[in-house]
Structures are given as structure tokens and as C-alpha cells.
Predict the 3D structure of the following.
Amino acid sequence: MAYQAGGQRPAPRPVPESPEAQAYLRDYATLLEAVSFPSVVLDHRWDVVLANTAFETLFRTVGPHPTAMPGDNFLRFVLFHPDAGTVLGEHESSWCLPMLAQFAAAVERHAADRGLQSIRRDIAQDPIMEAAYRQGLPHWIRSVGAAAVQQDGAVRPLLHPDPRWGATTCRIVSETPNALEDMGYTRLTLVLREPGRPADVPRGPRRPRRSASHLSVVPFPEA
């Protein structure tokens, strides 16, 4: 298992100073590796602290990117990597918009955080994404309700590179023990659902790789 799946991070990842915390993370990495589903530990900036092999396998086909690799910062991957839509089904409506909403809440809580402000600046440099963040996102949240923003329990489409899974869905389970929470970390597991199992979310066509902005539209739910 690797802590990083590739790419070049803009800044070194902070690690706990306490030897006890470091030892806990080493043991937790062993536990994470025993999980068969993609599982990842993130800090409040969505920097990846730990990721198991199943997580790396899910994103093994994505190309290199200087700042938005899934094993570096998961939010940056969702928002900025041109290959994100080849793995994350219904990329804009099921992944981008909910995570943009979570990001907006994080910026309110940690207004001075340099890592979050760096992501905010990158959003501002993309006119389409900036418009979605400022104008489209508030309307989308009012339309779909606050529950759509929550990640724990959400069922979202995936396009797994392993043909045994293929086009499927996953349920996001947030399961964070007290020790991780005290470090400011969150653990997410993508519980893959058996192919052919009825999905709780609509599934659209596979989106091609995009070389420019990901948020070409801000989708709204049908009446």
C-alpha cells in the first residue's frame, strides 16, 4: 500500500508529530489494506493521508496530473483532473456539485487555511466552475435539499476499470474512529455494489475525457 498514487503535490503533506499518532496511523494503514473496497483517509483539505490498494486500483487508468492525482488530493482530482469522468459516473451532478458544496462549507469553517484557499483560487481561474460555485451551487442546494450534499450514505455511479465491476454504483460510508477524528481526519469507504443490482441513482452514458473545464453545465433536478 502506498500513501501516494502519483503526481507532484504542491506542498509536503503534514504528518502528526506525536510518535503515538504515527504508530496509530501505521497500524491503521494495515487495517485499511485488509478492506476489499476502496478506502481512504482524508484531512480537512481532502489531502490523502492513507489509501488502500483497492482505492489505487480504482483509479489506476487515470493519466498523470501535476496537482490533481486521486492519491494526493481527492477534491482536486474530482474538480480538475480531465480523467475524473472516466471513473466517476455522472461526474458533474453526482460528484462535482456535492463536493463543491462540501468545499464551500469547509472554507467557511477554515477561512484562513492556505490549502483550501489554493483550491479556491484554482476554482476562480475557471470561469465556468466559478459561475457554478457562486451562482449555480446555491440554487442547486435549494433545489435538491441539504441531504444531497451529505457524503455518508450517498449512492453514486462508478466506472470501475476492472471488468468484473464495470459500470456500477457505490455507497459512500464515512466511518471515522475517535483517534482519527482527533487528528482532523475522515475515513471514507466506497462500498461497491454487485453488477446488475438495482441502483438507487440514475446512470447516464460514460463521459469522455475533457481537456478543459469539467463543469460545462450546472444540472438541476427534473420537476
In short: Helices lie at 19-33, 53-58, 74-80, 91-109, 114-124, 127-144, 178-182. Residues 1-10, 201-214, 219-223 have pLDDT under 50 and may be disordered. The longest strand covers residues 167-174.
